[in-house]
Design a protein that fits this description.
By secondary structure, the chain is of the alpha+beta class. The protein is built from 18 helices and 13 strands. The chain starts with 16 loop residues before the first helix and ends in a 21-residue tail after the last helix.
Length: 606
């Protein structure tokens, strides 16, 4: 018969409980120390406990899409807003629809509340449009009687090559509202730019024949529109005149004018828009049809440019977006200023209008008067995409924590009563073993609290009322694991074994039961977290976390402590107050089969 392997620990052997217990205590001390060193000694609270801001957004139809307000687009908007807010580190932000047109956003206090408020309703419609003309952002002042109009800065930035402020017609003596020289210059710049945009020529004042046949020459194809249609020409002239008027009269310093100037425009339209230059001065632009959209952006982030010492937003394009970007920059690089610029237009405003000198690849950057917050905010918005609808902020309400505080107090009282009842039951029924259970509950409580406090700044976890309920429910789950182990030990003692062998033999059976039970609880928490939204996710997250900690505490604290205490005289001798008294448990000595002794046969009996 082969000798047993002495180097291999048999099942049920005690192992090294002291080392396991020391490792657990070191981990617990490290977590607690990390909590104090991080400065976050209390968990982050949700809006129902800490208060915060509640924002109501009303959806508006997108121009050209009268039926855009539907369930699919509303659900998409909720998902994007939630990702934007959580991207700022604001967890437990509730985003949900109300009715058919409203979205409610609840942002807890103590987070990036103001940043989140600025981002929730931002549509983030991003377009890349070629620049056709540029001028000063405010209308030129009318000249005084008998004087000449003041010089306009549009002379150096517009697409016109020969017009200068002050060289055109002057106002009449009676001060009639005839156009000023600067306004005429701005209008002519728009006309020249639109004509130049229709031809391959870089000249800012192309003739009529070039305008009619330039596209065909540029593409090397026959031009189907070589013969002009009088009605189309009249329509084009009317549109150009309307665009000239809009561009000339636009005052970019007026917020309402900036908002309404291209509110009903489409990506395929030529538009007028406003933006600030590097000197923080307003400029107005005539922009061609969109060449790229926000959907062509794969990723965006705000970064600090060490060489230039400024914050910028970098963008990486998708495969299709890269091809489009290369095409448009290749065309723009052959144009003269300002028509070699492309404008990055976000929600109708020009955030940047860089010039192009060569064909660019699959990435771009937005530079301007960014600080760290604004650059990272814009990168966050662009990364998560544009909202499918436009939203108007209907109301902003400050939520107090008074009601939540009362409910939390009631919940904590209920939890304390439940914990007290559990301890009374343990002491009454398990006596000395209850000390192990109470120590294990304390260790589980410390681990749960420190991890919740660290998860606040780590992943933005915020404690709300359902999460508190999940923690209270976990008391019963944790106590149940101890009871399973204690009952297995008692069963072994009832079978006649002494305490130390009983502790080790009971562990494999109890371990299997505990793992199965905790797996079912964790699976239920995971499913609940996936299929629910809002506060219910807080309950599911806390329940799953405490279930995992229950396994850790039972394996690395309760079992080693039980093994060590089984070596003490108080427990090993079966003291009446140990909870392991063999007589109280009804233990019987093990049955031993007596040996049968054969007797000699009596001849008389035979």
């Amino acid at each position: 018969m082969a000798a047993p392997n002495k180097g291999r620990r048999q099942a049920g052997a005690p192992g090294r409980p002291g080392r396991t217990l020391v490792l657990f205590l070191i981990a617990m001390v490290a977590l607690t120390g990390g909590m104090f060193m991080s400065g976050h000694v209390t968990p982050r609270l949700g809006i129902d406990l800490a208060g915060g801001t509640s924002i109501t957004l009303q959806a508006k139809n997108t121009p050209g899409k009268p039926n855009a307000i539907n369930k699919t687009n509303m659900d998409t908007a909720v998902s994007i807003i939630e990702r934007r807010v959580n991207g700022l580190g604001v967890s437990e932000a509730e985003v949900q629809t109300q009715g058919n047109e409203n979205i409610i956003v609840n942002i807890p206090r103590g987070t990036n509340e103001e940043q989140a408020r600025q981002q929730v309703g931002t549509t983030a419609q991003l377009f890349f449009r070629p620049v056709l003309a540029v001028a000063a952002g405010s209308p030129a002042p009318e000249p005084s009687a008998g004087g000449s109009p003041s010089a306009s800065p549009s002379a150096s930035t517009s697409a016109s090559s020969g017009d200068k402020a002050g060289s055109g017609d002057k106002g009449t003596e009676s001060g009639s509202p005839s156009p000023t020289s600067s306004e005429t210059s701005q209008g002519r710049a728009v006309t020249d730019a639109l004509k130049a945009d229709e031809t391959p020529s870089t000249s800012s004042s192309p003739d009529a024949s070039a305008s009619a046949s330039g596209d065909g020459a540029a593409d090397g194809k026959a031009d189907d529109k070589a013969t002009p249609d009088p009605s189309a020409s009249a329509t084009s002239d009317a549109e150009t005149a309307a665009l000239e008027k809009k561009f000339t009269e636009l005052n970019c310093e007026n917020e309402k004018a900036r908002t309404e100037v291209n509110q009903s425009s489409k990506p395929s339209d030529t538009i007028v828009a406003c933006g600030k230059n590097s000197g923080d001065q307003w400029e107005k632009y005539v922009l061609g049809p969109a060449e790229l959209e926000g959907t062509d952006v794969d990723d965006a982030q705000g970064v600090f440019d060490q060489q230039r010492g400024m914050w910028i937003v970098t963008m990486d394009f998708t495969g299709g977006g890269t091809k489009k970007f290369q095409s448009i920059t290749g065309k723009l690089s052959k144009q003269q200023s300002p028509m070699n610029q492309f404008a990055i237009v976000l929600d109708g405003n020009v955030v940047s209008a860089p010039s192009v000198s060569q064909t660019l690849g699959g990435s771009a950057e937005i530079s301007g008067s960014f600080d760290q917050t604004s650059a990272q905010d814009l990168g966050n918005i662009l990364s998560y995409g544009a909202l499918p609808l436009s939203f108007q902020e209907q109301s902003v309400t400050t939520v107090t924590a008074a009601l939540g505080g009362e409910q939390l107090e009631a919940g904590l009282i209920a939890g304390a009563i439940g914990l007290a009842l559990v301890i009374i039951y343990l002491v009454t029924y398990y006596r000395g073993l209850s000390a192990i259970a109470i120590l294990s509950l304390g260790a589980s409580g410390v681990m749960t609290y420190t991890i919740m406090a660290l998860l606040g700044p780590g992943i933005g976890f915020a404690l709300n009322l359902p999460a508190v309920c999940g923690a209270i429910v976990a008391i019963g789950i944790t106590a149940d694991s101890f009871i399973v182990y204690f009952e297995r030990i008692r069963d072994e003692i009832r079978e006649g074994r002494t305490l130390r062998p009983a502790v080790e033999r009971a562990w494999p059976r109890a371990r299997r039961t505990i793992l199965v039970s905790d797996f079912v609880s964790f699976l239920a928490a995971a499913v609940l977290f996936v299929v629910t939204v809002g506060k219910v996710q807080g309950f599911a997250f806390t329940l799953g976390l405490t279930t995992l900690l229950d396994v850790v505490v039972v394996f690395f604290f309760t079992k080693p402590v039980m093994t060590l205490l089984a070596r003490t005289k108080f427990f090993s001798s079966g003291h009446p107050w140990s909870g392991l008294d063999p007589q109280r448990l009804g233990a019987k000595p093990p049955l031993r089969r007596a040996r049968r002794v054969s007797r000699p046969t009596d001849p008389k009996e035979a």
